[in-house]
Amino acid sequence: MANTNKVITHWKGNLQFESDNPNGKTVLMDTSPEHGGHSSGLSPKAMMLSALAGCSGLDVVSVLDKMKVQVSDFRMDTYGELTDEHPKYYHSVSVEYHFYGDNLDENKIKKAVDLSVEKYCGVMEMFRKFATVKTSIHYHNK
């Protein structure tokens, strides 16, 4: 049980839930008005895409830092395509890595992304169990 994470998710009324994190931080979840919510928090399915991007982004930034590669900005656009039938889940996911800077070292950036995608990112590995995951890298040299 050493590698077990526990979160507590507490109903806050209507369709709103608050979930904690092992570090003590909390996140609010809700749904859209068309589904009876108030859009006062993040949707659970969108949070899955955020978790995927966050997991990979942490890897990429950490590896780039170790390689002493500088970027002025970095963003990931993550798209998830849901099935038509219930239970709706992401059957196809795309992660676009966008790097901005002067004279970007494309080889090292690609290596950092590949290490995350192929080796380090556990959330991406989980997604691969139920979805086709595509990635692409976009360089924006100033």
From TrEMBL:
Q: Name one Pfam family in it.
A: OsmC
- Its EC number is 1.11.1.-
Query: In which domain of life is the source organism classified?
Result: Bacteria
Q: Which GO terms describe its molecular function?
A: hydrolase activity; peroxidase activity
What is the protein name for this chain? OsmC family protein
Q: Which SUPFAM superfamilies match?
A: OsmC-like
Q: Which UniProt keywords apply?
A: Hydrolase, Oxidoreductase, Peroxidase
Note down the stretches annotated as region Disordered: 21-40
Which Gene3D superfamilies does UniProt cross-reference here? 3.30.300.20
